[in-house]
Amino acid sequence: MDKFTAFESHVVPLPAENVDTDQIIPARFLKVTDKNGLGDALFFDWRYLEDGSPNPKFVLNEPASQGAKILIAGDNFGCGSSREHAPWALTGWGLRAILSTSFADIFKNNALKNGLLPIELEPAVHAKLMRDVQADRAAKVKVDLADQSVTLPDGSKVTFQVDPFAKRCLLEGVDQLGYLLGFDEQIKAFEARHDAL
Q1: Residues of the chain with pLDDT under 50
Q2: Positive or negative torsion for Cα 183, 186, 191, 194
Q3: What is the DSSP letter of 136?
Q4: pLDDT score of 186
Q5: 3-state class of 29 per DSSP?
Q6: Domains and CATH numbers, the chain
Q7: How far apart are CA 15 and CA 133, in angstroms?
Q8: Contacts with 185 (C-beta within 8 Å, 6 or more apart), sequence order
Q9: Helices (H), strands (E): how many in the chain?
Q10: Whole-angstrom distance, CA of residue 95 vs CA of residue 88
Q11: What is the pLDDT of residues 130-163, one digit of tens each?
Q12: Fewer Cβ atoms within 10 Å of its own Cβ: the N or the C terminal residue of the chain?
């Protein structure tokens, strides 16, 4: 996992509320244990028409969405079943942060463990930002995890909360196992002392 550094990006607006994990990545794509290629299946049933061609009316297919690292979605994003494939698909498409007013707990935890930052915004801030990025698809937002802040297109800054351990792992670019492996020398020293007793 790459270290999570501050970045600026234009934003994909998806105003739908209660977007569940089956809409993010349909169940038929869950037969894999490898993350590669899951970005192609992101929002598959919304993104593609029945003949398999891209749906020109879906926001991810719009030219203005290409290269975006931030998605702003409606309330209760990531509800439904527990599947790590949902953040895998989102990051596989290129997203690094999701902005919403709330997230399902399991999705939020899975996202944080897989390099995707879920950011909860106050409803009034969220509503204004949604309007702003829908009106100007080139509008940029800056996400700074170290500072726990989001800089909006008008230059104003809002802060957000994040679990301290998840923040540390994201900033260091490690998952939970990688974090533990960082204590390898201390573990060996402890075991050597323990064995000597």
Answers
A1: none
A2: negative
A3: -
A4: 75
A5: helix
A6: 7-196 (3.20.19.10)
A7: 11
A8: none
A9: 8, 7
A10: 10
A11: 999 999 999 999 999 999 999 999 999 999 999 9
A12: C
Contact 71, 11 (CB under 8 A): yes
* Closest C-alpha among 146, 108, 165, 112 to residue 1: 112
Instruction: Report the alpha-carbon distance of residue 115 to residue 96 in Å, rounded.
Output: 7
Picking from 37, 18, 144, 5, the residue whose alpha carbon sits closest to that of residue 77 is 18
CA–CA separation, 99 vs 149, rounded Å? 12
- Lookup result for tokens 């598959």: 44
Distance of alpha carbon 89 from the chain centroid: 9
Locus of tokens 């790459």: 2
Predicted confidence at residue 190, as pLDDT, reads 76
Q: In sequence order, which residues have a C-beta less than 8 Å from that of residue 129 and are 6 or more positions away?
A: 11, 72, 99, 121, 141, 152, 153
Give the three-state DSSP class for 181.
helix
Distance CA 128, CA 132 (A): 6
SS3 of 103-135: the string is ECHHHHHHHHHCCCEEEECCHHHHHHHHHHHHH
**DSSP-derived 3-state class of residue 6:** coil
